[in-house]
Amino acid sequence: MHHWVASPCERPRYSLHRANGCSGSHQRIFKAVPRPKKKVDAAATAKLLVVLLAFAWGLNWIAAAVALRELTPWSLRVAGSGIGAALLFSAAVITGHKMRVPRGEYVHVMVAGFLNVSGFQILSGFAQLSGATTRAIIITYSMPIWTTVLSWLFLGERLNTVRWLAFALCVVGVTILVWPLFATGFPPFVFYSLGCALSWAVATVYIKWAKVTIEPLANAAWQLLFGLIFITAGSFIVEGYPHLWPIQNETILAVLFVGLFGVGLAHFLWWSIVGRLPAITASLGSLLVPVIGVSASAIMLGERLTLPDIIGFAMIFAAAACVLLRPNVRHDEMPE
Q1: Residue 156 lies in domain
Q2: Is residue 333 part of a domain?
């Protein structure tokens, strides 16, 4: 009977043992050691975080809709961004992440914060005020497609067959969704929702173009802080100081959910997931958000989906899946 023998250079994950006290001139037999479970456990934990993230961002739209019954978009976003920024900076410090912004990158992070945080959040608030939350979510989540198109135009990235198909699906889906609504005039929520998608897409492409080297979590935290500054300034210009009191208990809970879960916790989860999982698995969290958001809107807000809504949602969802689920591509966008 023959025994399989490996040299010391082979199979490094095995433990080395001498057989029966033999000298170094004799053969060395290796004994298999079970593979550590740390990596497996970390991946399983990250997949659970994907689901938690999807619920945090998906239900964030519902909480915002509840808060907007009593607050203006400006006041809601001042409170939500403030709570979220404080939570994210605290989490970064506690977990030992470096928060230093490399020299020359403050301007880039500030521009991204203006678009990614203040632009997106204010436009999404007005989108929900002027139209159904379900439709606002559906159009807003066309942002991966616009990111792809802008990357082609400004970064020189190739637009292959799958990307062209995604773009076509997105355009047709948005058209089917909004065309029946034009019978009563131009619906403002379409402008605001597309503004949300484009503001996020432009910020993503800008960050890629600027080639920033700041750590992802620090980038998110500073963007939230700069976004909070812009939102607060806009609030004072447009409507004076934020009107956050007196408000009902239901509104207080909604604002806390937006700040703690929809902004702070969700951003922290996203950057934790991006570092632990392949891009495709992490991106599934992005695709779950509109599904949960639309479903929760129908259940909790009593919004009914029409046939054009369903067809448009299906086509935009398929388009986003084509873009996000490409192999060997890393996505650092944070779709709220």
Answers
A1: 55-324
A2: no
Asked whether residue 219 is assigned to any structural domain, the reply reads: yes
For 188, the token pair is: 């403002």
Tokens of residue 293, six digits = 């958001």
**Amino acid, res. 284:** L
Whether 124 and 293 have beta carbons less than 8 Å apart is answered as: no
The reported pLDDT for the residue numbered 42 is 62
Tens of pLDDT, residues 19-74: 444 444 444 444 445 555 555 566 677 678 888 888 999 999 999 999 999 999 99
Domain for residue 193, yes or no? yes
20 within a domain of the structure (yes/no): no
Question: Which pLDDT belongs to residue 43?
Answer: 62
Nearest in space to 313 (alpha carbons), one of 292, 335, 334, 336: 292
Contact 84, 311 (CB under 8 A): no
Domain count, the chain: 1
- Please report where in the chains the tokens 């409507």 appear, as a residue: 239
Distance CA(336)–CA(268), nearest Å, equals 12
pLDDT for the residue numbered 2: 44
Rounded to whole angstroms, the maximal C-alpha distance in the chain is: 91
Number of Cβ within a 10 Å radius of residue 180: 13
Segment 85-110 mean pLDDT: 91
Instruction: State how far the Cα of 185 lies from the Cα of 37, in Å rounded to an integer.
Output: 59
